[in-house]
Amino acid sequence: MRTCTPRGTTAAAVLALLAVLALAPCALAQNNGQNEGQNTDSNASEATPATSESPAPANDATVESGRDAQASDEPGDTAEAQAGADGESEPGADTGEDEDSTEYAATIAELADASYPEKRDILNRLVANPNAHTAELLTAFADNRLVVRESDQTIFVAAEERDETYVLRDPITFEAAGKAATRDFEPVRTNVGLRGSIESGQARLRLQADDAETRLAAVETMTEKLDDTAADALRAHRPEESDDAVREAIDRALAINDLNTGDNAAKLAAVERLSGDFNQMVYNRLNNILLLIPEDTEDRDQAQLRAAVAAEVERIDWWRGVYDQLETLFFGLSLGSILVLAGIGLAITFGVMGVINMAHGELIMLGAYTAFVMQQLLPGHVGLALVLAVPAAFVVSGLVGILIERSIVQWLYGRPLETLLATFGVSLFLQQLVRTVFTPLNRSVSAPEWMSGQLHFNDMFALTENRLVIVAFSLAVFAALILVMNRTSLGLKVRAVSQNRDMARAMGIRTQRLDALTFGLGSGIAGIAGVALSQLTNVGPNLGQAYIIDSFMVVVFGGVSNLWGTLVGGLSLGVLTKFLEPHTGTVLAKILMLIFLILFIQQRPRGLFPQKGRAAEGS
Amino acid sequence: MRHSNHGPVLTRMLGDTGSLIFVVVLIALTVAVPLCNVYLPEASALHVTDYTVALIGKYLTYALLAVAIDLIWGYCGILSLGHTAFFGLGGYAMGMYLMRQIGDRGVYGNPVLPDFMVFLDWEHLPWYWHGMDIFPFAMAMVVLVPGLLALVFGGLAFRSRVTGVYFAIITQAMTYALMLAFFRNEMGFGGNNGLTDFKDILGYELSADGTRNALFVASGVGLLLGFLIARFIVTSRLGRVLEAIRDAESRTRFTGYRVAYYKLWIFTVSAMLAGVAGALYVPQVGIINPSEFSPIASIEAVVWVAVGGRGTLYGAALGAGAVNFAKTWLTGAYPEIWPYALGILFVAVTLFLPKGIVGLVSQLRRRMRRKEPS
Questions:
Q1: How many A×B Cβ pairs under 8 Å?
Q2: Which spans are transmembrane here (chain B) (predicted)?
Q3: How many angstroms separate the Cα of B198 from the Cα of each of A144, A205, B62, B96?
Q4: Of A394, B67, B132, B366, whose Cβ has the fewest other Cβ atoms within 10 Å?
């Protein structure tokens, strides 16, 4: 589920953009057309099927020739033809609202020789009384595509510019209005202030949208470009608003407006109303006030206001600190859970069996590629493919693991250094195999919808769902593994063999078969880790290498042959890394962690939770 | 030091046929290749091209690295997966010297600062770059920096009795950390690009034929000396203790030897040899960058030793040459085959050739000898 709510201004801007996408597809189509040239005609004609062209022609070439044909068919110079088109469309657009549309047309016509303040006024009048194409009109205005014909001061929308020729549209009905040379036209100029007003006007238009999210985004945009018009519009809209979140946003905007323009009492009241609001815009506004009022102001009212604002800012800062720490903790846990996932497979092969498997990273990579292949096999079922990829990856990596054990590792028991080299060879082989089969390019595994949103607590604190899912997933895998090791006969046998191989064999355990199974289990879990990793990074042949040293570190840190040690070790290493990163940067944090681990191993060669007793001495 | 083996040192060191052959062949190679390069006409079948001289020169430095690894792995059972860290540090020390020799001939023409520092807008030379323009000082650093790192790192590790696989993994972590560190521009070693664009060494132009051949000879002599030092160590009484540690560490400790000190000593010597190899390597290939520190490079070097045959020293050198020759040939002819070949080589050598090529040869000889009497 998508519970995406904006945090900060960038998010608001992105959402505003989304809102534009949602509400004004035709405007966007024109926009695209301007940038990309060729596609415009088909898009534009889809948007306004009333044009003289055949609607939505099959391909661009046809459009092109059709358009040219039309242009050449028309007798006389193009300007005349446009004048004709104008005359036709203006009265006939909407017969029911003749008067309105005439007034609307008159308002647009005023733009031709208006000053900037007048333009703003015209803009507000247009927005206050819009027609179906006002949004498009504003987009065109903001893009400098509103042009005036110099000969008669008529306004047109230049849908497209090609070879010094404008493809024109009527500003009221957006019907095609022929073509004309650019030199006959002058754009209706805009400046920064006017653009802000246009944007705010667009937002005001979107305030009428049916979709609550669009309305919310519109309110956010208006809050950023707050002026009296926007505030009035919000105030007017407030009673008819049905959505709680939007109403809250409107209240916030109105309070900020009070902070901007109200008298001291209104400002104080606004500060009170805004108390507890962690919105970025509120924070910025409050900070602004702190900057505007000097600390040693003589005015008692001002001083009172300043104190109130300062207290509020301090409160927000404090909470922000808390949430930042929480967020870092969460990131640390999420990194840690990845380390745990990558490490517990190794904890079984390395810890329990004492086999160094340098191909462990490549088994992770195979799991990630399994997820990729599953998504290719089940197009359109992203989530299902990912869920199915978990057992599939377990099987794929597990089988490859058993193959490695049977063909190589079993001949090298008791010779760990040789095992290390041989399995490293396997890892090179697997990497190259993947490169041959899937090409060396990175593949991306798409995230299902239920993993791509955010869990939103408030404006300062939101957790990404994919990381949450992965933390939960790795804990689940860990729990399942603990159950297998402690509650099943397989687990019992594995523990028996790891503690005393000869005795276990004497008790009738087929150790060879068990070795293969154990190795397969560890490898299969590596595969599962790969599925989880595919949600965080791109899947490529080198995916495994990035994690092999880390996962060895986790296992050694936690204490070999101790699954709980791996859990504690992985999580604490993850958290430690993430708390270091803001101070040192990513690379240095990693280096420091490695140095820390190297020193740690010197001090406690058997890890955090060393194995005790006679079994430990043998190894 | 008193030697258990009496008689002249040279006899002791070269008493073994393999070593003797190796030394003879190495000397012949060191003399013959530059001669064939300079005096034989290009049309001659025996002419050695400039490219081949540089290539064999590079193999010689790899061989020295392999000897250094074999010294600790073959004779003391210490598997280091981070030996290219020492190789790289030696190389960087040499690279820094060569960098300082560029002077104002760099792109930015700064007489003191290397180009990349000017590019990063640095105003002063970092402290560790001072003195690197003095050749003897730089050469001392080539040996001392890797030696010091090995001393500190090994000291910590061996004192805590970190052995076997654990040691292998933390050495890998060490070289990985160094790689990440050297990738950072802030380290002042040229970041990603490393050090390159060298102009001359000791006043001689690097691209000149004479310099190339001189560097080749230096590599040959370096390998020879490194080999002789290693032979000297392993044939001395100290070498016996090292072998004892390799075969039964606890027993040696209980016999009264301070195992940690022996290991630390040999590890440091080996690191210094690797540093020298790196220093010889850099002027011949003309660049040093952080990828030299990559863990895979270290493991590859270990495989050279395994392929040649560990515990013989000359086997290691042979393995370095053979594997790298195969690498050069395969990456040229069938680039996508090489990683497969390398992977299979790792597995095949550990499974079927535990004593490497050298072991294979002596096995064949034994079989022949057994057949002869009958």
A1: 117
A2: 20-40, 60-78, 85-103, 134-158, 165-183, 214-234, 260-282, 337-361
A3: 55, 65, 21, 10
A4: B366
Burial code of B347-368, b = ≥16 C-beta within 10 A, e = fewer? bebbeebebbbbbeeeeeeeee
Q: Is a pLDDT exceeding 80 seen at residue B260?
A: yes
Cβ neighbours around B374 below 10 Å, total: 4
Average pLDDT, stretch B111-133? Answer: 87
> Could you give the number of structural domains in chain B?
1
pLDDT of residue B5 exceeding 70: no
pLDDT digits (tens, 9 = 90+) for A44-100: 333 333 333 344 444 444 334 444 444 444 444 444 444 444 444 444 444 445 667
Interface of B with A in 238-297 (CB under 8 A): 295-296
A interface with B, Cβ–Cβ below 8 Å: 356, 408, 411-412, 416-422, 424-433, 435-436, 545, 549, 552-553, 556, 587-588, 590-591, 594-595, 597-599, 601-603, 605
Contact predicate B159/B152, CB 8 Å: no
C-alpha distance from residue A545 to each of A430, A577, B187, B336 (Å): 11, 19, 24, 19
d(CA B374, CA B366): 14
- Asked if B344 lies within 8 A of A429 by C-beta distance, the reply is yes
Alpha-carbon distance of A107 to A122, in angstroms, equals: 6
Axis-axis angle for helices A116-128, A192-206 (nearest 10): 0
3-state secondary structure of A298: coil
Token pair 């520190």 in the structure block, residue = B293
Is the reported ipTM for this assembly greater than 0.90?
A: no
CA distances from A452 to A383, A466, B272 (A): 11, 6, 52
Using a CB–CB cutoff of 8 Å, tell me whether B152 touches chain A.
no
Long-range pairs, B193-197, Cβ under 8 A, ≥24: B193/B116, B193/B289, B194/B95, B194/B287, B194/B288, B194/B289, B194/B290, B195/B92, B195/B95, B195/B96, B195/B98, B195/B99, B195/B114, B195/B282, B195/B287, B195/B288, B195/B289, B196/B286, B196/B287, B196/B288, B196/B289, B197/B102, B197/B106, B197/B115
Spatial distance between the Cα atoms of A365 and A545, rounded to a whole number of angstroms? 9
Name the CA dihedral angle for A605, A608, A609, A615, rounded to a multiple of 10 degrees: -10
pTM of this prediction? 0.72
Structure tokens at A202: 């667009």
Give residue B368's Cα distance to chain centre.
35
Decide: A574 and A328 in contact? Cβ < 8 Å. Answer: no
SS3 A580: helix
Q: Could you tell me if residue B360 is inside a domain?
A: no
Interchain CB contact of B183 with A (< 8 Å): yes
Q: Which portions of chain A are predicted below pLDDT 70?
A: 1-99, 560-561, 611-619
Amino acid at A489: S
Give long-range contacts, CB 8 A cutoff, 24+ apart: A157-161: A158/A185, A159/A30, A159/A33, A159/A34, A159/A40, A159/A44, A160/A30, A160/A33, A160/A34, A160/A37, A160/A40, A160/A44, A161/A34
- Decide: B223 and B70 in contact? Cβ < 8 Å: no
Q: B113 with B122: CB under 8 angstroms?
A: yes
Q: Which residues of B touch A599 (CB under 8 A)?
A: 156
Q: Are B289 and B331 in contact (CB under 8 A)?
A: no
Summarised one tens digit per residue, pLDDT across range A142-198 is 887 888 888 888 888 887 777 778 888 888 888 887 888 888 888 888 887 788 788
DSSP E strands in A22-175: the ranges are 146-149, 155-162, 165-169
Cross-chain residue pair A412–B303, CB shorter than 8 Å: no
In a domain? residue B17 = yes
**The one-letter amino acid at B144:** L
